[in-house]
């Protein structure tokens, strides 16, 4: 008989968890409410620290963004953003607020981790990352997943933190090579990652592949990494991610050595997810043809999104004085360059368009870049429609349990809330 995902458990040290991790989804798409449901149900949820000050302003009535914007107001029309820095005390406080408020509400036997994207270089990569990680640990987060743009020395930034060895620390990689480099660089610390998320080419958000992503395959990458870990006698739980759409997809990975799965796209259309409801409808409506991988993210990594995302091609003035999360160590962002190039090429024009890069901070903050996994084209098959044609939102619990209990690639539909169309 075919197994269900619920027949497996994720073991991390002495902890035993339901083998479902809901992945971090930046700028509060994987909200505290969503992460807390995963934890209540015995799995692992993620909050994200992407644009943390914007998130606390919106959730907890702080005024960090206004304060930063006021401080650097004189620089708003300048193409040189090098002086625009984050106040590290505010950054620590914002992180603490977000994590503390989340952890206070935690119920159940699962865990809540925070997703830290290292490509948020914030015009001072090491200082800001160190503060972000240390503050999250201070505030009681169960674990940290280092993602996107993995800096090889990042564990060392918190090696003196009292929780360095008790908190769960994990990394996301898309190749054996990336994992080997990370482990080599960290060998001095005598502290292995507690888990490794292996993210394949069908995932949402940024991809750890080039534009040749379609030539790669998650199962093959997981098998390569697993074979190497066995040969090296390293016992680190592997957590495949990207395109795992049904409980049976997940079971196939667990039968081949995965310790759990990380999933995200199916949770974008839950009530607990932080996207606005009208955007959730866009995710439901999208067909596979409506999704593309492009290179407009200033990070330099390809990113998958719905083609109709309003942020694509938009030419808004850079908002680094308010945000500035993507400024690199020299205060540069590829969108700032692209914007001022277009401005110079079209003098006097009121609204310019910038096609090759996007102001990712502004547009992720405003939910105007609709990033998603490749399987978003199948979301409409996971729910029922109301009489007005709209798709019924799901509860996170429903989706979580569908992964856990389904067999034969089936997807259980929710009970209709209103009459069916
Ligand atoms: C809307 C959305 C936003 C995402 N944002 C992030 C992010 O901020 N950081 C990150 O490491 N991964 C991000 N991801 C990737 C997910 O955490 C996850 O690994 C991946 O999407 C799993 O594949 P699936 O969506 O096919 O289930 C995002 C995914 C989605 C769908």
From TrEMBL:
Keywords in alphabetical order: Dioxygenase, Flavoprotein, FMN, Oxidoreductase
SUPFAM superfamilies referenced in this protein's UniProt entry, alphabetically: Inosine monophosphate dehydrogenase (IMPDH)
Molecular function GO terms recorded: dioxygenase activity
InterPro entries, alphabetized: Aldolase_TIM (IPR013785), NMO (IPR004136)
Pfam family, one: NMO
Protein origin, superkingdom: Bacteria
Protein name: 2-nitropropane dioxygenase
Biological source species: Hydrogenophaga electricum
Organismal lineage: Bacteria, Pseudomonadati, Pseudomonadota, Betaproteobacteria, Burkholderiales
């Amino acid at each position: 008989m075919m197994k269900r995902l619920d027949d497996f458990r994720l073991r991390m040290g002495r902890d035993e968890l339901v083998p479902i991790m809901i992945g971090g989804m930046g700028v509060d798409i994987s909200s505290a409410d969503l992460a807390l449901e995963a934890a209540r149900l015995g799995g692992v949820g993620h909050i994200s620290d992407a644009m943390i000050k914007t998130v606390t302003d919106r959730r907890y009535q702080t005024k960090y963004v206004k304060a930063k914007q006021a401080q650097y107001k004189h620089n708003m029309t300048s193409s040189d953003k090098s002086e625009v820095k984050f106040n590290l005390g505010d950054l620590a406080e914002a992180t603490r607020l977000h994590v503390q408020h989340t952890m206070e509400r935690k119920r159940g036997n699962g865990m809540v981790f925070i997703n830290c994207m290292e490509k948020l270089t914030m015009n001072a990569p090491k200082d800001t990352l160190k503060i972000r990680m240390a503050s999250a640990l201070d505030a009681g987060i169960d674990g940290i997943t280092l993602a996107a743009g993995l800096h090889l020395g990042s564990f060392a930034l918190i090696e003196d933190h009292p929780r360095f060895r008790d908190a769960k620390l994990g990394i996301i990689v898309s190749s054996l090579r990336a994992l080997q480099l990370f482990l080599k660089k960290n060998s001095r610390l005598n502290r292995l990652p507690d888990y490794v998320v292996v993210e394949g080419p069908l995932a949402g958000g940024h991809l750890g592949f080039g534009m040749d992503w379609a030539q790669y395959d998650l199962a093959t990458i997981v098998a390569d990494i697993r074979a190497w870990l066995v040969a090296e006698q390293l016992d680190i739980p592997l957590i495949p991610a990207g395109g795992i759409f049904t409980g049976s997809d997940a079971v196939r990975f667990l039968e081949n050595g995965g310790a759990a799965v990380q999933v995200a796209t199916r949770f974008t259309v839950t009530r607990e997810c932080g996207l606005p409801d009208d955007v959730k409808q866009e995710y439901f409506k999208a067909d596979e043809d409506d999704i593309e991988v492009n290179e407009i993210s200033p990070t330099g990594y390809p990113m998958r999104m719905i083609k109709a995302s309003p942020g694509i091609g938009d030419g808004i003035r850079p908002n680094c004085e308010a945000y500035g999360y993507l400024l690199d160590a020299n205060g540069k962002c590829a969108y700032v360059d692209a914007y001022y190039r277009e401005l110079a090429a079209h003098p006097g024009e009121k609204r310019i368009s910038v096609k090759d890069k996007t102001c990712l901070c502004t547009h992720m903050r405003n939910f105007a870049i609709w990033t998603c996994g490749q399987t978003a084209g199948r979301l409409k098959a996971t729910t029922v429609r109301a009489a007005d044609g709209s798709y019924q939102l799901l509860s996170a619990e429903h989706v979580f349990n569908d992964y856990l209990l389904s067999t034969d690639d089936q997807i259980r539909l929710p009970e209709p809330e209103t009459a069916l169309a």
